[in-house]
Amino acid sequence: MSASAPVKIPPGPRRWPVIGQLLAFRRDPLQFLQSLPPDYGGITFLRLGNQGVYFLNDAKLIEQVLVTENQNFTKSRVLQRARTFLGDGLLTAEGQPHLRQRRLVQPAFHRDRLIRYADDMAQIGDRFRNRWQNNAVMDMDQEMMRLTLAIVGKTLFSADVESESKEVGESMEIILGLFQLVMLPFSTVLEKLPLPVMKRFHKAKATLDDIIYGLIAQRRADGKDHGDLLSMLLDARDEEGDGAGLTDTQVRDEAITLFLAGHETTANALTWTWYLLSQHPEVEARMHGEIDQVLEGRLPGFHDFPKLPYVEHVMAEAMRLYPPAWAIGRQARNDFTLGGYNIPAKSIILMSPYVTHRSADYWPNPTQFDPDRWSQQSGDRLKFAYFPFGGGPRLCIGERFAWMEGVLLISAIAQKWKFKLASGQVVDTKPLITLRPRYGMKMHAVSRL
């Protein structure tokens, strides 16, 4: 398109001068995006402050951005700004650096590694389930955070970080809260001011850095190959590139990225799964039946994963309704055409698994929790009607790890326990960088034994 060609703007809701729809979006982004009239089609133009945003709710357009024309896009502003915390890890790196880092990290998620991880997952799940008390009220969201933190510490870093889980959890809470600030106009200026929120952020970042750099220092000192991700990063050489290894800072950036992604998202997926099961006792009973029949009282292992299809369908359906990554953003490098519209360079493209996963265009009875929909033929459903792990070259590198972890933990825990929502517990979503329960998730642990 020539520089003087007119830009055809897609339809969009009425907007206020200067701020556009920023206030409505920030107040409740999920409700706002779901409220957009369906007659706008698969692409809607929004003005969030001084930024033009194109919201996609069409599987073909989403595939065009994430797959077909992925080279024309960089990560969104939020993840670009996340370098403040994540550095240049897999989530934030672009272009050749991203491809190089993905090559170095990929072997940690090969099948032979997953077999070893499966035993650790089941054993840690067993440790947690054995310390719960019948009829006790649990903060399920916090307990799942502690559980998945212990697993990522053991499987990826061969470290016992459970004793530091409270510090890690509090630090993560502060850092994730900062993303609300990042979305504000002029946030780069706000970050430089001596605001209390920024002081808390720097303290939280230092806490997590101390843990990660401590693990790196221990590993450098003993010089042993522990067969985990951290050893692989320290020993890695880019044979397809310059043959160089990673500095401590580069190892830290990859480790902190996987530290966050490896427990935050899975913990949220598990929390929402337990909530949905508590509201659908017939699904819960059927899942218990499969687990009891397949496992016969023993802990699940890697080779049980394909034998537990209904458990996997339960998890898939929970992530359809409550995808941990509720929004995915990209920024256009160059002008391009999308859905019949000319989109200028530097525009933000916003996609929401949460919204698309609940679209009646792709899902019969879209708000109903129905694991059976995953055992039915899905030929009529487009691929990117469901994309909880993203797609294309930036597809989550730990997708297979997450599926296995979720299925094994659900199976191990559900052998002994079921959960009921505590009286008075209000359930609502809190969309930060991941989709958390806004008011926590208090549940009664009920023994099945």
- Termini separation comes to 67 Å
Task: Give the uncertain stretches in residue-range form.
Answer: none
- Count of individual domains: 1
Overall form: globular
Strand content: 5-15%
Arithmetic mean of pLDDT: 88
Entry summary:
The chain has a single domain, classed as Cytochrome P450 (Cytochrome p450, Orthogonal Bundle), CATH 1.10.630. The protein is α+β, with helices and mostly antiparallel strands.
Polypeptide structure, described:
There is one protein chain. The chain has 449 residues and is an alpha+beta fold. It has a single domain (89-318, 353-447), classed as Cytochrome p450, CATH 1.10.630. Helices cover 48% and strands 11% of the residues. A hairpin with a 3-residue loop joins strand 10 and strand 11. Helix 7 runs parallel beside helix 17, helix 8 (140-157) packs antiparallel against helix 13 (248-279) and helix 13 crosses helix 17. The model has no long low-confidence stretch (mean pLDDT 88).
Please tag this protein with its features.
single chain; alpha+beta; Cytochrome p450; five-stranded mixed β-sheet; 17 helices
What are the SSEs and their pairings?
Layout: H1 22-27, H2 29-34, E1 43-48, E2 51-56, H3 59-68, E3 73-75, H4 77-81, H5 83-86, H6 95-105, H7 111-129, E4 137-139, H8 140-157, H9 165-182, H10 187-190, H11 196-222, H12 229-235, H13 248-279, H14 281-295, H15 309-321, E5 328-332, E6 336-338, E7 341-343, E8 348-351, H16 353-356, H17 399-416, E9 417-421, E10 429-431, E11 435-437, E12 442-447
Helix pairs in contact: 7-8, 7-17, 8-13, 9-11, 11-13, 12-13, 13-15, 13-17
